[in-house]
Amino acid sequence: MITTYLTQTPRVPDLLKQINFLNLLTPAQPPIQIKNIFQTDPALSFSLPYQLICTETVLENPNENFISFFSDRWRQTEKIFFNSISEAAELLTQKNNIIYFHLPFNSIRRGKLIEDDLFKRYPSALKKFSYNYHPLAFPIQRYPKFGCFTLLDSQHLLCSSHTQSSIPFGIYHFEEDKTTPPNRAYLKLWEALCEFKTYPKPGDICLDLGASPGGWTWVLQSLGSKVYAIDKAPLAPHIQKLNNIHYQQDSAFGLNLKKFKKIDWLVCDIICYPDKLFSQFMHWTAPDSPVQKIICTIKLQGDLTDDKLKEIHQFYHSHSVFIKQLWHNKHELTLFWKK
Ligand SMILES: C[S@@+](CC[C@H](N)C(=O)[O-])C[C@H]1O[C@@H](n2cnc3c(N)ncnc32)[C@H](O)[C@@H]1O
Fold it and tell me: Residue 296 Cα, ligand 1 centroid: separation in angstroms?
């Protein structure tokens, strides 16, 4: 089975390291082998900040879900030969009867013409999910069923309808709010919520740990939730003044969660070592904890070593943990957990 990973260019070494680490972790399983690292035309590589890495596994490797240094994973990737734009569109249409979005890689103009041909066959509202058209509005109201394709050259395409990300390629270009949020950290939480495909509701109780200056607090508040924001540093004054925000100047570690009957969302963006975060995470996810859902960043700090990968691996103590490097994450990962 061929799987294609779409990874941001600076993250290629981390993804390759992760694949080697997975092979070490399960020596009894067939190894994941790198089949191909596709390069873009050098003339384009400056404008396209990602690469495609194809791997082959004989069987499904159970550890493959562990950490994702990629923005999207295409399972069961197929390579297809075609002669003309209309033939490529026709071949894709015949597959599962879903829309396929074009990832610009090589032969970009031709790929976009194929996508344009596909759009004529499906509702134009889907266009907003295309990397080639509008920025995305937050929150996403309806998620399309879709597949992805890219051109390797003018007559070969790669395609898959088994993609991991909630939107095409996991590339999030949002319609930004350049006035209220105190920093751009809100984009990370917007993306995390879109990937989670579930959002805080009006009246939900949210705990924002390491909240200052308040980007994440603003996101939760703007969705109508009641936010308890904890940080040693203050919130930006215009955020603290908003309704339904309770700020506490304190350390977030060692907080007594039992004073809350229910915490619908715990979000945490504190800069600390993964080991320290892990002990907190065990506390948040204990059977008697009131926490229902968690979104939390894991800061990588320094090079990605096997020891660091081992530390991160401990977070997989239950099946409901999912860790991914988001499009807006730099040297960090985002952890998702649901009770
Ligand atoms: C990356 S910033 C958070 C940005 C925030 N998510 C936003 O959207 O504006 C990390 C914050 O963690 C806070 N912090 C670090 N250690 C902490 C601790 N033990 N308890 C509470 N806050 C802590 C820092 O003061 C800092 O404001």
Answer: 12
